[in-house]
Amino acid sequence: METTAPAHHASVTTETRDGKSCTICLDTVQDEKTLTCGHCFCSECIDTVFKYKPACPVCNTFYGLYEGTQPQGTMTMERSWRRLPGFDHCGSVAITYRFPPGVQGPEHPNPGAKYSGTSRSAFLPACEEGLKVLRLLQVAFNRRLLFTIGESATTGLNNVITWNDIHHKTSMDGGPQQFGYPDPGYLSRVQKELQLKGVTADDLTEDPPTQPHNIGKPFDHMRSLYSQMKTVTASA
């Protein structure tokens, strides 16, 4: 996992303030480092945290780009006129993730160990908010945040590709119990999960060069775009 934490986001003093506790080690703050969000920690404690995730442990303000450990793969999107329960006014977008088999790298739990290939499918409504979530998911995919390698929560198998705490709707129907629709709060929840990974609306630039077929265009153009879209692929 690679992170970048610009030094100018924090000011450092060498004083220890009596009575002030570090929320990481739960001891008195030593060699205080105060982030621009206002929270302070032991310098050694926050530097260690930033090696894994460049975000304040208290308020989750990010300081730099957060990149995960997702293995190499592809994200494919296909427009469908099939409607999802609860979104009768629009069609849908089918997402397919594909990962070939490979060997774990130094950022994975067991470097040098093999992992099997896999594919996963998910669905979003093709409404304005759904297309926004689609773009956010593509940003997260490019930052290697959607999947990781570890132990499967469903099968118990180790050294396999697993979801990385950003929930997807893998069924078109059946409700939350079947990981499908209708689920009125899903689009809001998944945006909060993406925010915890440092992916927000601020990352949706006008025309990102890494996203083909003008996926990054403003929403005014998205409906006409998706009416013509067949398949778009992005590589990690």
Can you tell me about this structure?
The chain has about 240 residues and is of the alpha+beta class. It contains four helices and 13 strands. It has helices at about 45-50, 130-140, 185-195, 220-230, and strands at about 1-5, 10, 30-35, 40, 65, 75-80, 90-100, 100-105, 115, 120-125, 145-150, 160-165, 230-235. The strands form five sheets. Strands 10-7-6-13 form a four-stranded antiparallel sheet. It has a three-stranded antiparallel sheet with strand order 2-3-4. Strands 1-5 form a two-stranded antiparallel sheet. It starts with a strand and ends with a strand. The model is unreliable at about 1-15 and about 205-235 (pLDDT under 50).
Poorly predicted spans: 1-17, 206-236
Which descriptor suits the 3D outline?
globular
Radius of gyration: 20 Å
- Fraction of helical residues: 10-25%
How would you spell out the order of helices and strands? Answer: EEEEHEEEEEEHEEHHE
Strand content: 15-25%
- Structure classification: alpha+beta
Largest sheet: 4 strands, antiparallel
Span of the ends, CA to CA? 14 Å
- Number of H/I helices: 4
* Biggest β-sheet: strands ordered side by side in the sheet: 10-7-6-13
Would you count the extended β strands for me? 13
Mean pLDDT: 82
